[in-house]
Each structure stands twice: as structure tokens, then as C-alpha cells.
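Incident review: delayed structure delivery

Summary: a single-chain prediction request sat in the queue longer than the usual turnaround. Root cause was a stuck worker, restarted by the on-call engineer. No data loss occurred. The affected request and its eventual output are reproduced below so the record is complete for anyone auditing the incident later.

Affected input:
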Amino acid sequence: MNKAAAGIKETNPHFKKAHAVMSEQNDDRDFAGHDDAKMAIRAAVRYLLKGVPVSDRANIVSEIIETVHQVVHEVTADSSDPFEDELPGG
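Output delivered after worker restart:
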């Protein structure tokens, strides 16, 4: 993130709302399936963009995408090959 975006992020109340919604405290939620999870994502994005001036929306969307990238890396790091147990033949 560039310095200008970082400055906006620190002073803009919309970013504080976005950070609270996308915090790691909300990670472990049970969903009824893929459609339920997608619906929750759509609802969260709408919540984050509600009342936000158009000029600030791109910055919030960038933060959402950054959060998605972080989750992808965490999930990739957490998943391991069950057959790769460092034992001979595995």
C-alpha cells in the first residue's frame, strides 16, 4: 500500500469500519454451504460500502482484496498433504 493510501486509511472512518468487519475475530463462522458463505461476503461488502463516497470505495475494495489474499495464504499454509508425513514411503 502506498503512503497516500496508508494516510487515508488511518484518518478515514470508513476504513475503521472496514477493519472492524474484516478482523480475524470473525474468522471461524459456520456456513450452511457455499451459497451461504457467498451471501455473507456480499452482505459484508454492502455493509462496508454503505454510505461511503464513491471516491473512497476503491480504497475499501482494495482493502477487501488484500484481506482475501491474506486468507488465501493462510488457508494454503494451513492445508498440508496428509500423505506427506516425512516417513518412508509417504
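Verification: The chain has one domain: 3-78.
Action items: add queue-age alerting; document worker restart procedure.
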